[in-house]
Amino acid sequence: MSVESVYCGGDFDCIVVGAGHAGCEAAHAVARMGLSVALLTQSVEAIALMPCNPSVGGPAKGHVVAEIDALGGLMGYAADMSFVQMRTLNTGKGPAVQALRAQTDKRLYQQTVREVLEKTPNIRIVQGSVVEIVVEAGQVKGVRTHTGTLYLAKTVIVTTGTYMESKVIIGSSTVASGPNGLLPSYGLAANLRALGFSLGRLKTGTPPRIHRRSIAFDRMEEQRGDEGYIRFSRRSVRLDPVQLSSWLTYTTAATQEIIRANLHRSPLYAGLIAGRGPRYCPSIEDKVVRFADKERHQIFLEPEGYDTAEVYVQGFSTSLPEDVQVSMLRSVIGLEQAEMIRPGYAIEYDFIDPTQLTLALESKMYEGLFFAGQINGSSGYEEAAGQGLWAGINAGARATGRPPFILLRSEAYLGVLIDDLVTKGTGEPYRLMTSRAEHRLLLRFDNAEARLLPKGVEAGVVASRELARLRQDEETVIHWKEYLEQRKVSPQESGLEHTTTAAALLRRPEITWGELMRVAPELAEVVVHLAQRIAIEVKYAGYIARQCDVVERFQRLESKAIPQGVVYSEISGISLEAREKLAHVQPRSYGQASRISGVSPADIAVLMVYLEKPHG
Fold this sequence. Notes:
The protein is an alpha+beta fold. Among the domains are: 209-346, Elongation Factor Tu (Ef-tu), domain 3, CATH 2.40.30.260; 467-547, tRNA uridine 5-carboxymethylaminomethyl modification enzyme MnmG/GidA (Arc Repressor Mutant, subunit A), CATH 1.10.10; 560-612, Orthogonal Bundle (DNA polymerase, domain 1), CATH 1.10.150.570. The chain is 35% helix and 19% strand. The protein has 20 helices and 22 strands. The strands form 5 sheets. Strands 1, 2, 6, 7, 8, 9 and 20 form a 7-stranded mixed sheet that branches. A 6-stranded antiparallel sheet has the order 14-15-16-17-13-18, with no helix packed on it. β7 and β8 (139-145) form a beta hairpin. α1 packs parallel to α9 (381-400). The longest helix has 21 residues, at 466-486.
């Protein structure tokens, strides 16, 4: 295709299409690598928009935020600078699933991200709607906007989120719209299909927002933030942030009666919604149908910011007509007088099949063309941001001739996320969970920097000076772990029959770091974030060692590369389904091949024998 145009808006190392969470992280990563980037968005006011919930983090998602921060990304810093409440979740469970969750001021979050982007050298923000990816001879050349303006680049990252051919559905009303009443993206989906990409249709939704003054908080359970200043990012500094409470309430039998009586008016059950919705975040009407035996469902009321009366009704996603939504809300305990500001809605949008991408999130058909975020079939701000960061680093690597940036499943939740998407694909909005990570005890929130910061320095997105600080932290961890193994604790101190060590005492299920400090008060000098990590690594040393052994065996398969260009149809000993799946995904290693749905261990064994014997 010719790149002639009436007007050229510029020539860049990278163009990022879309300025949601994926696009912002992608542009920021490319710019930190010293490369020029144009960030194109349909609305500058929508940069880093949080169109659904006001939260960042939680199990698995919070781990991703910590990993993004360890790689120099934006999300953790922005959450720290805008949170209205911060809590550590799953404190009663094991360390692998404990993570921070922030309730943020949505506008302040956007303002923080936009300010960082505007102050970052090498980023040019442009308002415009991209309708065409320009390619020549299998190589991306740039993009064209709806006004005909051409932007040239060595690489392009598409991060259109839920905007591509999107429509918003409330009851029987269907409107061409993006989230929050913003413009949808038209033209790009048809262009991608013309380029040979396979696209699908997904659906997600959001609950109504209500006015704070109409809530009877005295009938609900208050949910306070954690005391003390805890944070995602070492880079954030915020003095005495004011924390706002969230509130827990419940639906009633009346709620279920209203929903059942109006199911025929639900676009979900009336067949007006074609896209597949998220399994792990169902609408309230879907909950009532699927969990008919449950008498009530939890509802959390979350403030949307310091300077707004809007309250997010978490757990109440719906696309029922407005009159039904009001009735439903007023059947919830404490919401009898609820004033609805914005109705809930469903949104349908186009996405690409992510198995068309390499592990670098680069198109297998067009060199230099990357995709990140909800266009790849994922759900959630955190999953989008993580993909954006990953694609940004890889676009920068492609532009400068460096090798791809790939993290294994054993190295990061980001590795799990990307591998799941490009290897297995998805037929519904993909949500990352701790259960998806086989090695989650090694991928904890507290050790994200130790795992990934050196890789960030190597990739060029983290300043090398950070290594000195990390090295000092690592020396501190090693010192105190050795100290605990050697520090004797007498029966008088421990209440046990025999002398033991502080480490052995800490490994007892009932002993916490705080209780150990009563026996060994010198531990008070260990800074909090390192104390948590030391305690976990000492207490769970046996489990961690066993998981490291498993990872070592796993990496043998991961390190055995499969040559590109294998003609799987010629391998007669492999099942027909496996041959088709292997040919479609084109795995880079035996490990990746083993995770493809429909490929059995027997297929892998045959493949290894076939590829390792000489072919004359």
